[in-house]
Design brief:
The complex is a heterodimer of chains A (179) and B (184). Chain A has 179 residues and is an all-alpha fold. Chain A has a single domain, classed as Transmembrane di-heme cytochromes, Chain C (Fumarate Reductase Cytochrome B subunit, Up-down Bundle). Chain A has a two-stranded antiparallel sheet with strand order 1-2. The longest helix of chain A has 36 residues. Chain B is mainly beta and 184 residues long. Chain B is 15% helix and 48% strand. Chain B is built from 2 helices and 11 strands. In chain B, strands 1, 2, 3, 4, 5, 6, 7, 8, 9, 10 and 11 form an 11-stranded antiparallel sheet that branches. The radius of gyration of chain B is 20 Å and the shape is elongated. Classes of the chains: A mainly alpha (179), B mainly beta (184). The interface between A and B is medium-sized, with 17 and 17 residues.
């Protein structure tokens, strides 16, 4: 009998997924707004808050993952696919931290600390540094785009298991009654 | 010979007096004018990269001191070249029409050791307000260093018009912080 992920894991997965898609979309839209407008600045703030939230939830996910074993893959799944899935999941965990962290240090280097939800200022770990900000801007962009590619792979793999293999792999991460 | 010496002494005294009456020379490398404000509660420190301060100050007669500061409004660096261009535009500083913000002192009064109370007129974007603020002065490396800060309301000077009047986006209060090092 195939197991589902725990409710905690499912909630965290989809919450983080929504936040990542939201932050990604905001990131594309806000950097495309020409000039200077309150909307643009508001989007930047939301983007940063979303990124920090992803990072905080990612810590919870990592803690969950270290304490729990994910439900087994379908018995029929070939070894190379298991290996690829493990590798991709590990990479996604790395990027879930790397992308927000690079953005966080980028905004610090640019001289704009993050004030989470406008309520409290998060630690200023590095001083303002224009050349470093320019570098981190590129780092943040390319990490984001690499992660986007991995997310596309992740989604395609889930769909392939659902539509072609029909092996219930994706159902492990969907809410519902016990399998 | 005696006469020459006397003449020389008189001349020297005259030169010293002249020097004391002349404005101090500003040491731009050790001076700064910045504006601190909050954008969606995020503290931002921005610097004016071009300004000129003329201070006439004699420690023996502080009440006779005068000060004038001219600031290039287009020189405010808020941390991004793209945004710096935007704030020189009409909605913000309108630097094309009002290239300079100026402060001219009307009275400077001693207020204890190393302290002065300054009153004067601050003009930005065609609006003038009476302002007063405390100032500290201390000698440093053969120069006098004047330091102080002055909170102002940006909307009183129409800095940020239209949709930018929203003080939740950019707070009304802006603190102008300055340090001027000047000497003979």
């Amino acid at each position: 009998m195939q197991q589902r992920y725990t409710t905690t894991a499912i909630v965290l997965h989809w919450l983080v997924a929504l936040l990542i898609i939201g932050a990604f979309t905001l990131g594309l839209v806000m950097t495309d707004i020409p000039g200077f407008s309150p909307t643009k600045l508001r989007y930047y703030a939301w983007h940063k808050w979303a990124g920090v939230t992803v990072m905080l939830l990612a810590v919870l996910r990592l803690l969950w993952r270290l304490k729990n074993r994910p439900p087994a893959f379908p018995a029929a799944m070939p070894a190379w696919q298991r290996g690829a899935a493990h590798g991709l999941h590990h990479l996604l965990y790395v990027f879930i931290f790397a992308v927000p962290l690079s953005g966080y240090f980028y905004t610090l280097a640019a001289g704009f600390p993050v004030v989470y939800f406008g309520l409290f200022q998060l630690p200023v770990l590095i001083a303002k540094n224009a050349p470093l900000a320019e570098t981190l801007k590129g780092v943040h962009y390319w990490l984001t785009m690499s992660m986007a590619a991995l997310v596309v792979l992740h989604v395609l793999a889930a769909l392939k298991h659902t539509i072609i293999d029909r092996d219930g792999t994706m159902r492990r991460m969907l809410p519902g009654r016990s399998l | 010979m005696k006469l020459t010496r006397l003449t020389l002494a008189t001349l020297l005294t005259g030169v010293t007096l002249l020097a004391a009456a002349a404005p101090l020379k500003t040491d731009a490398a050790h001076s700064s004018v910045s504006a601190l404000f909050k954008q969606m509660d995020v503290p931002v420190e921005s610097k004016f990269t071009r300004f000129n301060a003329q201070i006439d100050y004699d420690a023996a007669h502080p009440d006779k001191a005068t000060a004038r500061v001219d600031i290039d409004t287009a020189s405010l660096d808020i941390g991004s070249p793209e945004y710096n261009k935007e704030i020189a535009k009409k909605t913000w500083f309108n630097s094309a029409q009002f290239p300079k913000a100026t402060f001219v002192s009307t009275a400077i009064k001693p207020a204890g050791a190393g302290k002065l109370n300054v009153t004067g007129k601050l003009s930005i974007k065609g609006k003038t307000q009476d302002v007063s603020f405390p100032l500290t002065v201390k000698p440093e490396g053969g120069k006098q260093v004047f330091q102080g800060q002055l909170p102002i309301k940006r909307l009183a000077f129409d800095i940020g018009e239209g949709e930018w009047k929203d003080t939740d986006m950019v707070a009304d209060e802006v603190v102008i912080k300055f340090r001027v090092a000047a000497g003979q």
